[in-house]
Specification:
The structure holds 2 protein chains of 2 kinds.
Chain A (H helix, E strand, L loop, with lengths): L17 E5 L9 H5 L5 E3 L11 E3 L12 H5 L5 E5 L2 H9 L1
Antiparallel strand pairs in A: 1-4, 2-3
Chain B lengths: L2 E6 L3 H4 L4 H9 L4 E7 L5 H13 L4 E6 L2 H14 L7 E5 L1 H5 L6 H20 L7 E4 L3 E5 L3 H12 L3 E5 L14 E2 L4 E2 H14 L3 E4 L2 E9 L2 E8 L14 H5 L3 E3 L8 E3 L1 E2 L11 E2 L15 H5 L12 E7 L1 E4 L3 E3 L16 E3 H8 L20 E5 L18 H15 L4 E6 L9 H9 L4 E5 L2 E7 L2 E8 L4 E7 L1 E4 L3 E3 L3 H8 L26 E3 L9 H18 L4 E4 L4 E3 L9 H5 L5 E5 L7 E5 L9 H5 L5 E3 L4 H12 L1 E10 L5 E9 L1
Parallel strand pairs in B: 1-2, 1-3, 3-4, 6-7, 6-18, 7-10, 18-29, 20-27, 21-22, 21-27, 22-23
Antiparallel strand pairs in B: 5-30, 8-9, 11-12, 12-17, 13-14, 15-16, 19-28, 24-25, 25-26, 31-34, 32-33, 35-36
Helix pairs in contact in B: 2-6, 3-4, 6-18, 7-8, 7-15, 11-12, 12-13
The chains are: A alpha+beta, B alpha/beta.
The complex binds flavin-adenine dinucleotide (FAD).
Chain lengths: 97, 680
């Protein structure tokens, strides 16, 4: 309802960052990753892979918007996609352990 | 039988209209009346003593008092005759003030005649009165308080400190209510959180207070003395025992949504704590926005980040059953939705905001750290227009009432805005300034005299956008000119309305509300914190718009009522309750069907035929008389108001006697009894 508003404390809220890694040759174009990505940053490639399928790519301009939730990785039946977290705080935490 | 009649002048209230002397003479001739007298003020101490002396001297066994409404002094006179040794139910009050002298001021003769008939009817009724004893029911000396705002917290602390157990149920993840959202409070400008949060912590730590947050009351059964209550607690998906409130989870949560506590002006994560001082200091996953669903749990960044492993995605709702003897309702208020004020651009322009939003912008722990910024572009507004009575005192909008606190908080807003933006200008449109409270008027005068704050008496007709400004069209009725102000931000003082869900809660408890949905008190002056549903007490803004001092006073008042109720181990109830005559009851069940309180159950007799009969639960029965009207066999009667008593009263007023009872057999065989009344 309250349209055209921006959240006034966005500069204080950080989101984790992820990096999506694709293994296109494994993909069979089921589309689950595109369907399940909560940030909606994935789409089909126009290219075909060796098996003749369109595989997922990141929508142009959305490269920085992966939050590393891991949904794509979890739903992929072919182990063709996975996520690496590049959020700085987590990395340093991991390093400690 | 020896009946005494006492007629009160009530100063000139009654004696100014009714001919008291003539009345005394006529009343003395009535059957069973052995003594009749009059007194200036019967309710006064000498008046009551007179009644007691006469009872003893003339060996009266019943009393009629002709005075004001029994609602006013019925209990006073009952107590007086009890002290003189009579059963307190052997009295009848003839209301010759509200029902006679006040409404017939110009008709002295007729009024005197009517007063006589009312007394005659009371004499006839009291002649059939029986001594009654209070009904004792068990009393669970624990209390349920619904709503954890400042009112609920205060009531909880007072009762808990009085030594009784309290269940405090709060809908949101934290207690504190609206007061927690405020910046500084009028008229002293002390920081709201600084005075409230210690109380919140005290309530949570109190050994006598069981705190249920993120919970709602789902069901209430029973009556005063013993309510069975079911509380439903929503899952937080975070174990409150393990959560340390460190916030590592929220840091890594990838979802940002508007924070309700900040009125949506700032964001929070899907795993969140509404504000840093929240009580309990436990995080909550808002499953509606969490990337995980009930069926699919994938994103586990908060889970991984949580050191004490407090997160549990598999938590379910919890039901808690408790028993209490009394209930305090303190569910507070909401602001009327801003979208209702389209003419002021409510809901349409992002920089037209409500008072609570402005509080969050002022607050140093708010989304902007206390820098006043526009929600549209984050710029600091240099000219702000405040509109009072934006919906209140406006029957067209359905809020005919005054919201009471807006004059004060608008003055506060204007001043705090000037503190935050010293070169800014504030304009306040008002109809009247209502500042009746200790040091309130002085505060408003101080604000009105502040440079850069201008008060304009008049209404605003329209607010609209021009470029990035909001144009306010209004009128200054003191100078008689139309004004146009180009503002950066507009703050509306919207009506205070009962909080969402209060209506359903009131229905569940059968506690009456007024036409606006605020809970009704039983007497507006003398019993302002009690619902007419016995055992239910009201505290705070849920009864009417109130500021903090009033909310807190009412909460303490409600607590003292609960404490006095709990001062006895058992509960003595007025015996004006339905009584079944087993010889007449045929077990048809009509009474049970009409009883609004579910007080009647049909039981089987132990005899061979196993016929049914009605049984009244005295604790539930409120003596309303519906059953009595429904029973065709006159087998169920309300004590103190039995059918013979009511008939005697009517015959006395009509100067009639039942001459004959005809029993016609209708076709189909139903008996139709008709009592024919003829004038004597
Ligand atoms: C803009 C603004 C500024 C104000 N400034 C001041 C000021 O400076 N000084 C001052 O004295 N007063 C001020 N007030 C008034 C103040 O906010 C109220 O007096 C006070 O908050 C009333 O307290 P309460 O406990 O009755 O209600 P609330 O604060 O509304 O608390 C009610 C609580 O009950 C909970 N609840 C609601 N329904 C249920 C349910 N069904 N089950 C369980 N829990 C439920 C709510 O979540 C809430 O926690 C201001 C008000 C406004 C709008």
């Amino acid at each position: 309802m309250r349209t055209k508003r921006r959240l006034l404390n966005l500069d204080k809220l950080t989101k984790p960052k992820g990096k999506v890694v694709f293994i296109p040759e494994r993909c069979k174009e089921c589309g689950l990753c595109i369907e399940y990505c909560p940030t909606q940053i994935l789409e089909y490639s126009t290219e075909f892979n060796e098996k003749g399928y369109h595989y997922p790519i990141i929508k142009p301009g959305k490269e920085d918007e992966c939050v590393g939730c891991g949904f794509c990785q979890e739903v992929c039946p072919d182990f063709a996609i996975y996520v690496e977290l590049i959020e700085p705080k987590l990395q340093s935490n991991d390093a400690k352990e | 039988m020896r009946i005494g009649v006492f007629i009160c002048h009530c100063g000139r209230n009654i004696a100014g209209v009714v001919d008291i002397k003539a009345l005394v003479d006529r009343v003395s001739t009535l059957e069973n009346v052995v003594y009749a007298t009059n007194e200036m003020y019967l309710c006064s101490d000498p008046g009551q003593r007179k009644i007691q002396e006469v009872i003893k001297e003339f060996k009266l066994d019943r009393v009629v008092v002709a005075a004001c409404s029994p609602k006013m002094h019925g209990a006073t006179f009952a107590r007086a005759i009890e002290e003189a040794g009579l059963n307190p139910y052997l009295i009848e009050i003839a209301n010759i003030r509200e029902q006679c002298s006040w409404v017939h001021q110009d008709l002295r003769k007729i009024a005197t005649e009517k007063a006589f008939k009312l007394i005659k009817a009371a004499v006839a009724k009291v002649a059939l009165a029986k001594p009654l004893e209070p009904v004792y029911v068990p009393l669970t000396r624990k209390v349920l308080i619904i709503g954890g705002g400042v009112a609920g917290i205060q009531a909880a602390l007072d009762i808990a400190n009085g030594g009784f157990e309290v269940y405090l149920v709060e809908k949101s993840p934290t207690i504190g209510g609206h007061m927690a959202q405020l910046d500084e409070t009028f008229p002293t400008l002390d920081c709201s959180a600084c005075i409230l949060t210690p109380r919140m912590v005290e309530a949570a730590r109190h050994p006598n207070i069981h705190l249920y947050t993120y919970a709602e009351v789902k069901q209430v059964e029973g009556v005063v003395g013993s309510y069975k209550v079911t509380i439903e607690q929503k899952p937080r998906y975070v174990d409150p025992e393990k959560c340390t409130g460190c916030g590592d989870c929220a840091e890594v949560c990838p979802v940002i949504v508007p924070n309700e506590f900040d009125q949506g002006l700032g964001g929070r994560k899907a795993i969140y704590i509404p504000f840093p001082q929240a009580v309990p200091a436990v995080y909550t996953i808002d499953l509606e926005h969490c990337l995980n669903t009930e069926k699919l749990i994938v994103c586990e960044q908060c889970y991984k980040a949580c050191g004490p492993k407090a997160i549990n995605y598999l938590m379910g709702p919890k039901e808690i059953e408790i028993e209490v003897g009394a209930i305090v309702l303190a569910t507070g208020y909401d602001l009327w939705p801003i979208e209702n004020l389209r003419e002021y651009g409510g809901g349409e322009y992002p920089d037209v905001i409500n008072g609570l939003e402005f509080e969050r912008l002022l607050c140093s722990s708010g989304p902007t750290g206390g820098v006043v910024r526009r929600p549209s572009d984050g710029k600091i507004p240099k000219r702000v227009v405040f509109i009072q009575c934006a919906g209140s005192r406006d029957p067209k909008h359905g809020c005919a009432y005054c919201s009471k606190i807006c004059c004060m908080y608008t003055a506060k807003h204007a001043l705090l805005y000037k503190h935050a933006v010293p070169d800014g200008e504030a304009y306040v449109f008002f109809i009247d300034v209502r500042a009746a409270g200790k040091r309130y008027e002085e505060f408003v005068q101080r604000v009105m005299g502040t440079d850069g704050i201008k008060y304009l008496r008049g209404k605003v007709s329209k607010v609209f956008q021009r470029n990035d400004k909001l144009v306010v069209w209004g009128v200054d009725t003191l100078s008689g000119v139309a004004v146009e102000i180009e503002a950066d931000m507009v703050v509306l003082a919207l009506p205070i309305v009962p909080s969402q869900g209060t209506k359903e809660l009131a229905q569940m408890l059968k506690a009456p509300t007024d036409e606006y949905g605020f809970l009704s008190e039983i007497h507006p002056k003398l019993r302002p914190v009690e619902s007419s549903m016995m055992g239910i007490y009201l505290a705070g803004a849920v009864q009417a718009p109130k500021d903090i001092p009033d909310s807190v006073s009412q909460a303490s008042a409600a607590a003292s009522k609960v404490l006095s109720l709990f001062s006895n181990k058992q509960l003595a109830l007025d015996p004006i309750k339905a009584e079944v005559d087993l010889e007449k009851c045929v077990g048809c069940g009509e009474c049970a069907k009409v009883c609004p309180f579910g007080a009647i159950t049909m039981k089987k007799r132990l005899d061979k035929k196993k016929r049914k009969y009605a049984e009244v639960n005295k604790a539930l029965c409120q003596g309303c008389g519906c059953c009595m009207a429904a029973c065709r066999k006159e087998a169920i009667q309300v004590e103190g108001f039995t059918l013979p008593q009511l008939r005697a009263q009517i015959y006395a007023i009509l100067d009639a006697k039942p001459t004959k009872v005809e029993i016609k057999k209708k076709e189909g065989g139903n008996e139709d009894k008709t009592a024919i009344v003829k004038p004597r």
